[in-house]
Every structure is written in C-alpha cells, then in structure tokens.
Amino acid sequence: MIDGDSVCLDRANRFINYPFANEHQYKMGDLVIRRFQFVPDDLEGVIVEYSVKNEGTLSDIGFIFTGLVDLMPVWLSERKDIVDGRDKARYNQEHEAIIAKDQQNDWFAAFGSDRRPDFHGIGGNLCQANNQGKGTRGFLRYDLTIEKGQTEEIRFFMAGSYQSIDKLWGNYDEIKNSSKELLQNKIDRYKGIVSSSKLEISPL
After folding, report:
1. pLDDT (tens digit, 9 = 90+) per residue, 162-171?
2. 162: Cβ–Cβ under 8 A, 6 or more apart, which residues?
3. Which of 37, 129, 135, 153 is 20 to 30 A distant from 68 in Cα terms?
C-alpha cells in the first residue's frame, strides 16, 4: 500500500532461478522491489527476503504480508483414516507471528518476520488470493518510510511441523536466528555438487 493506493506483487518484471534459490523483481512506480526466497536444508520452512528501493520522492509504505495456510494430509491418506480438519489461525505475541493449526490433527504452520508488525489480523483478502481446501489466512503489516535513494529490507520466516507445537517453534526459531548461515550452507552444498560432477572435454 503506497500513499493510499494498493498494489499487489503478483506480476514480476523479471524472474531468476538459481540452483539453491530463486528471485522475483518488480518495478512499481518509483519503487524497485526484489523478492528472494529459498528452502533451508533439513528444516521444515522457507525464508523470503524483500528489499524495497525508493528511486523517487519520499514514500510512506504500508507493507502487508498475507500468508495463506492449508494444512492437509498427503494423497491417499484417507485410506489410513486421516481426516483433514479445518485450520484455525491466531497471532502469537511471544514470537510476533501468525500460527495456524489443523483442528483435528497436530499439524502446525507459522510465519513472521525480523520486525515487529505495526498491525496484524486474521482473514483479509487485499489481493484477492483464495485459500484452498479448509485453510485459513492471516496478515502482518509494517509501516515503512523510505527516503529517496534508500533501500529497506525485511525478511519473512515460514515454518511448519506435523508433530507438535514445540517442534514448530523450534523450526521457526532456528530459521529466524540462522537465516544467513542456512543460505550460505546451501550455497556451499551446491558448490560441492558442482565441483564433484564437473566434466571438462579438451577440444580436438
């Protein structure tokens, strides 16, 4: 939301796919926005980083992150009498994040950021995104002031667990507190794969 006008980041001007992550780039008037995301190894979660650069006049921005959650069993789970329950979401003050739970199973998901939200809520549909199945949604709003030529960054952390709420928050805290290290570890792992599988053929 920019000076009262709502803009949805649903059409990127450019997409880049890396071996370990991918990136969307947007141009919204005077704003240049980069979204970078990756899945850390061996953890149930995703890290998404936004950078917002102002190339024009002073901008007061309400940055709203909406998370759509649908906790559901895998295909053919009904053969084991696993029933998908309706998901219910709430705001967790301690972690400053939205948490959702399947009401019939110990399945959990949570999302938050590296900033305290200025406002939060359950529901909302600013960009007309639709839930699937018996899912739910929540949103976090951050009020940003970005001077001309300046860039603001905000990271979001999403975690899940199909075991317990303690496992959920363990995943979430590790992702949040070690995001840079987790990215570097993934980059290093892919470098190792490349170095062990490189084939060079001399010209005839």
Report:
1. 999 999 999 9
2. 105, 106, 107, 108
3. 153
